[in-house]
Amino acid sequence: MTGIESAGGVGPGAQAGVGGPAVEFDAPRADLRRVGIGRDFWYPVAVSGSVRKGKVFATSFAGERIALYRGESGGVHALEDRCAHRQVPLSMGVVEGDALRCAYHAWAYRGDGRVSQIPYLSRECARPPRGVRAFPVREAYGLVFVHPGDPALAEATPLPELPLLGSPRYTTMTFSRTVRCHYSFMHENLLDMNHQFLHRGVVGRLRPELLGHRSDAVSAEARYLFTHDGGRRDRGAGLLAGEGVGRGGSADVMTIRTEYPYQRLELVPQGAQRPALSLWAVYVPEDAEQRTCHAYGLLTIEKPRVPGLLRMGWPLIRRFTERVFAEDRAVVEAEQRAWQEQGEDRNHEVFPVVLDVRRVLRANGVPIRPARPATADLVH
Amino acid sequence: MTGIESAGGVGPGAQAGVGGPAVEFDAPRADLRRVGIGRDFWYPVAVSGSVRKGKVFATSFAGERIALYRGESGGVHALEDRCAHRQVPLSMGVVEGDALRCAYHAWAYRGDGRVSQIPYLSRECARPPRGVRAFPVREAYGLVFVHPGDPALAEATPLPELPLLGSPRYTTMTFSRTVRCHYSFMHENLLDMNHQFLHRGVVGRLRPELLGHRSDAVSAEARYLFTHDGGRRDRGAGLLAGEGVGRGGSADVMTIRTEYPYQRLELVPQGAQRPALSLWAVYVPEDAEQRTCHAYGLLTIEKPRVPGLLRMGWPLIRRFTERVFAEDRAVVEAEQRAWQEQGEDRNHEVFPVVLDVRRVLRANGVPIRPARPATADLVH
Amino acid sequence: MTGIESAGGVGPGAQAGVGGPAVEFDAPRADLRRVGIGRDFWYPVAVSGSVRKGKVFATSFAGERIALYRGESGGVHALEDRCAHRQVPLSMGVVEGDALRCAYHAWAYRGDGRVSQIPYLSRECARPPRGVRAFPVREAYGLVFVHPGDPALAEATPLPELPLLGSPRYTTMTFSRTVRCHYSFMHENLLDMNHQFLHRGVVGRLRPELLGHRSDAVSAEARYLFTHDGGRRDRGAGLLAGEGVGRGGSADVMTIRTEYPYQRLELVPQGAQRPALSLWAVYVPEDAEQRTCHAYGLLTIEKPRVPGLLRMGWPLIRRFTERVFAEDRAVVEAEQRAWQEQGEDRNHEVFPVVLDVRRVLRANGVPIRPARPATADLVH
Known about the structure:
Shape of chain A: globular
CATH topology of the largest domain in chain A: Naphthalene 1,2-dioxygenase Alpha Subunit, Chain A, domain 1
Largest interface: A-B, 40 and 35 residues
Radius of gyration of chain A: 23 Å
Low-confidence stretches of chain A: 1-23, 373-380
Mean pLDDT of chain A: 87
Strand content of chain A: 25-35%
Structural class of chain A: alpha+beta
CATH superfamily of the largest domain in chain A: Naphthalene 1,2-dioxygenase Alpha Subunit, Chain A, domain 1
CATH class of the largest domain in chain A: Alpha Beta
Distance between the termini of chain A: 55 Å
Strand order of the largest sheet of chain A: 14-20-19-18-17-16-15
Oligomer: homotrimer
């Protein structure tokens, strides 16, 4: 399932998206919600199953539209989603072999972005553009990753490592959801476990106690002791508890870690040697202003001792996680709306772990490129 | 039903909304649709029945979001609708006794806006903010009023007086509607009775004759003689006529008065000693740019001589007033849209009463505070 | 059906819309999608049947709202759609004889825009405005045309000539559709016949070959030889083929011509003396920024040799043209969206005919007048 396709960009727009933090970007003082996500990483932009053979799938990274397509030979290609001719989305087009043909005037593109055919080109025609930007692509863990930064760095940049995914002891659930907030709200939400009040209807009364936290240039981590104090809880939560997760009276250790730009959560039940549950997540900005992100999550759960039990409980566990996620989404989207109305970040954070992750997200981010709304400039 | 709760604001935003007309505000020359409503008055922001015991109700005044909640002791509290921590709306929260707890990290607030508890606060945490702004609240006439201006002036500022509401001779209907226009269009609409053509399908042919008008620094008043000339009319209108209001051939005296910031209308049938109908209304800006207002109205009608008739006729009278209101709303919202498209006030008013009320609304208004859209400024 | 009504504008706004290209408008270098359409032409703004006797119809030209109404004497009048009093749309009003009465305070207007009555005007009232702008109107070919430019030029400006419309050999179908794009995308779409790939599901495999093209200051023309290569096609297309249009193996000559601001297409089957099909079209900007246009089209088809066949085939031909139009609309609207996201015209055109028509559209256009959004300026 894992494969590399290195693709050099061509055409005038090829280098547009490239570049690390600009010199004039004063990260420590920037409003965190105006900090763009670092580009020199692998980001998922689709679930593999959404990119079927011979089909095109429209996605985006931070406002850059991307046309993913899977050619005849099975590999996925990622092109800038604009025909070089008239800027019509290539995702409206047609896959032919390993090429993608624009729906309008039938220009054809190779997977590396070069124009391979213009059916009607004659001597009288002007010299056509060479092609469009292509993104390096890798496919792994059931996700399609692209590298939106400097293509020269792509090959040396590792994909995230998810060793439990290959283990026969574990099974994995994939999440893919749009959330209308800056990616930073998601990191802060997961790292600050003092928000269990929000989930009281699903998890009952959970008491988290911060055991410790640490942080460096690219990561922030918190460890909690979780005790269940009673109260109603969802059957999916109960099922996880029956398997050693969050049992009444028990105490589990939960470790949450942002390792830029990804985030992980691991839950180790009292006395256990390995995680009962592990979540890997990343929040990929969709729009140019990075006020909407796409959350991709891989939830890996230890298989239960009773065979077949997991299969029966799977829908309940999914429902439980969906409910928790829906509650989190409601508040982070409310935070984003507040920020937009207030025009600045007025949060007064008190919790050290959140202060840690904010510093990490600022330091590793890049300026958000100004959008070019066509509204203001008018012909005079 | 009437009660006072004086509440001093705390926290950094507490004084933000305070202040009378700024020195640099050139009221006589300002575009009236850019004049904000004066803040040092009591404004309804909810119907009492919408704020149930133990529940929160989200409302706003001129773009300031307000969380109203009714505590265990029955009183209503009005807090800035932003948790001081992460700016999540407190209206998503939970009432506990007379406190309000934020849904996200469970911070608790007292009715005066002070933070009363942060469940997880430890020595390692940063110093938390003190609280949020609280608005003085009074409840009267079935409405919840707040005082959005200088809190020091609240207690000495009288609520509007509505003596007929207490009288056994009269009965009252409450109206509460959002209208997408600047409040000034509403004042002009009611004061200029030459718009009966708009209501021709409901009231038939009504001929208003201006008997006189007067105006001072805070008020503008017009008196009309109303004669009904025939034409179809709504059954609710007929019912009012049967009770002496707008009878065919008869002539009623209608007095309409803006007494800043409220408006009243009284209708005295020919030969009668007291009003057959009295309307009190106020148009409370909802959004920061004050292009949408919430109209609160109390329509007081003399009880008919035949007992029981009013109860039977009540639905017809409500339908009649709803139809009239719907027609008025259509035109004032059209006026607002025209203003937005034209970017300035291009009205050419000819009627002296409207010129009077415009002067009053300008002189008693305040600058509209600039919104802070988070769109323009980007990190460079 | 053809009639002239010359109408001089009155009121302060009467001259606002008038004027040719401004001196400072550098047409050759302007972004084509920011070039406004030339005003000194006759433009359809409604289908005649939409303007019924005694009724008002709201339309617009490039953001100027227009109230069309047909008076008792049968003629259509076109007034600025704003009452001079309070800017309420006159299209909410009521036709009385040949006058139009505003719905709000019942001011009446004549067809030339002058106020003819204000029912309540008294000595105390201020001097009222004289009226609103009126547009010259002509009705022809089942369409209502207005002249939005300098009214002094209107009478001497000819309506488009459509000789086939009067011929008994031909029959005509009228199209009227809103398309959310700048009018220039429509001209380019029709002139560049290399986009048959877009219509492959409807027309099968059509091979266009450019026979020649020419262009001058006000026009651009292309001639193609069309050969049908097979492939499935729509039954409407087949029906046209049966009548000599696009038969399998045959070759038709198609001539497409932009003659500013209109566009024509004529198809002459091999060996025929006269067109089998002729389309006249114009794309009238609806909004001030000219990002939406209204396409009016008259499709004239030679009557078939078998009597009655056309009547039977008419619905199929309409469906065929609707399908082709829907496909074209999808791409031109995608082009407009791309332009808005990119903030500038990044098209890389290679085809000489499109380069020709761009030059013509730029040279005959005018600056788009800046809209006045009421958002930015606030009282300070």
